[in-house]
Amino acid sequence: MKLGKHVSIAGGLDQAPERAIKIGCNCLQIFVKNPRGWRARKIGDVELTSLRSKIRDLQIESMVVHATYLVNLASPKAELWEKSVNGLIKDYQRAGMIEADYLVFHPGSHTGKGLKWGIERIAAALNRVLNKVSNDTILLLENVAGAGTAIGSNFRELHDIIRLVNQKDRLGLCLDTCHAFAAGYDISEMNGLNRLLNDIEEHLGLDLLTVLHINDSRHPLGTNRDEHAHIGEGYIGLKGFSNIINHKLLRDRVFILETPSFQGEDLDVKTLLSLRN
To answer: Could you say which residues bind Zn(2+) 1 here (predicted)?
Structure first.
C-alpha cells in the first residue's frame, strides 16, 4: 500500500522523509515553501543532496508537493493572477528540483466572473506554467468542495480545463475524499463510490487519477464545507474508507492523509493499514 501523510518541513525539506517513516508511511506530501506567502528561500545544495539521499535510502515510494494556498489561477484581478501564475511556476520549479513525483494545486475561484470565464483563465495560466517549466513532475488538479465560486467540484469542470491545455500529458487528478463528499458524492457507501469513479472515467479517464487525499469529513454530505476529520471520526466513516482503499480500481494509487497531526503514533495511519485487505 502506497500510504503517506502531509508532514512538516520545519528544520529543512530533508527532515520530512524521516517524519513520514517514523509514523509508518512509505510516501509523503510536503510544501516546498511557506504555503501562506509568496516568497521562497533558496534550497541549499546540502539540503537538496540530503533530501534526495533520504528519499532513496528510506525507500520512499512517492513524494507529493502541495502548491501554495494563495494561488488562484481563476482570479479576475490581474495582479493576483500574475502572482498566482508565478507562484505556481516557482512551486513547480522547486518540485522538479527535489524530484517530486507530483505537484497538487487547487484550480481556483472565479469570484463572480462566471464558470466559463474562470475555466478559460485557469487553462491560460496552466499553458504559461507548462511553457515556462520543463521537468518530470506531474501537475495534479485537485477536486474542491464546491463552496462559493470555486471551480472543480465536479469532474466535467476539470475536464473542461484540461481540454484547453496544450501539454495534457503533464496533467493528472488528485481526488480529495472530504471534498468529494462535501460536493455531494456519497462515498460512505459503495454505490456512491462507484458513481464517483464512473464520473471520473466518463469525463477524465481513471488513468489520470494518481493520488488520493484521504480525509474524513466533519460535515454532512453535500454541505460544500471543507473540514477534515480523523479517519472514522467523520461522516464518511470506517466502512467508506475500507471501500476506498481496497477498491480494485484504487488499490495501487498513492494515498496521502491530510488529517490533523498526533503526538507520537499516528492513529490515522494505523487505522488505514488495519483496514487494508
So the answer is: 66, 106, 142
